[in-house]
Design a protein that fits this description.
Layout lengths: L1 E5 L7 H8 L4 E5 L3 H6 L6 E4 L6 H9 L4 E3 L8 H11 L4 E5 L6 H10 L8 E5 L3 E6 L4 E5 L5 E6 L3 E8 L5 E7 L14 E5 L5 E6 L2
Parallel strand pairs: 1-2, 1-5, 2-3, 3-4, 5-6
Antiparallel strand pairs: 6-7, 7-13, 8-12, 9-13, 10-11, 10-12
Length: 212
């Protein structure tokens, strides 16, 4: 099942977001993420949050339209984004596009990136915004990355070390190298062919296709 989870972060280019949407089976919004769903013409199956960004008036309006609303406490141990992701997985989503998870507050952006390794390995999650498409490679993982016009390819370690990194079909190939925190070796590569092939042996690697 393919799901889209909308968070309340910044979205500057809905045209680019739309190019990644496809036809989702499930749409869930975390708080102010409802605005992004409406901007893209999507009706959510659920909106959840403490409604500090969307506001209680908007929550009431959604309820009047028959959209299910789940209110959660302002003081809680998980962010609205994490709760929305977990709900999508609970409903059977094994492929999730996360929109509005970046921009604005840096703490929320970093927290959303750090959610990725803790999600079930059977669930593929991509984060997309107006300038980036982000995916995660887990230990032993392999990934074919289609070239996207005008984009850079950056490989950033999400664990202290990522060992056995292979990158083929790129301007600067990698053959079994180790990427470490505190180094920038994997930043701003370029895909030369129709696609690149990536693989790692150990660690967690962020795979980012970025546009200026």
């Amino acid at each position: 099942m393919r799901a889209v989870v909308f968070c309340a972060g910044m979205v500057e280019d809905y045209v680019r977001i739309r190019s990644f949407l496809g036809a989702p089976d499930l749409v869930i919004c975390a708080d102010g993420g409802i605005r992004h769903a409406f901007a893209l013409g999507l009706r959510p199956a659920l909106v959840l949050g403490d409604f500090d960004s969307a506001g209680q008036a908007l929550a009431a309006e959604m309820e009047s339209q028959g959209i299910p609303v789940q209110r959660v406490p302002v003081e809680k141990d998980q962010t609205d984004s994490q709760l929305a992701l977990e709900e999508a997985i609970r409903r059977g989503a094994d492929e999730i596009l996360l929109v509005g998870a970046t921009g604005g507050r840096l703490d929320h952006t970093v927290a959303n990136l750090l959610l990725l390794p803790g999600l079930p390995a059977s669930t593929t999650v991509s984060i997309v915004d107006s300038h980036n498409l982000v995916r995660l490679l887990r230990p032993g993982g392999r990934l074919t990355v289609p070239a996207l016009p005008g984009s850079y390819l950056s490989l950033l370690p999400l664990s202290p070390e990522v060992k056995g990194v292979v990158a083929e079909g790129v301007k600067w190939p990698l053959d079994g190298v180790t990427l470490r925190w505190g180094e920038s070796l994997g930043v701003s590569n370029q895909i030369l062919a129709d696609e690149a092939f990536l693989a790692i042996r150990e660690g967690y690697l962020l795979v980012i296709q970025a546009w200026d």
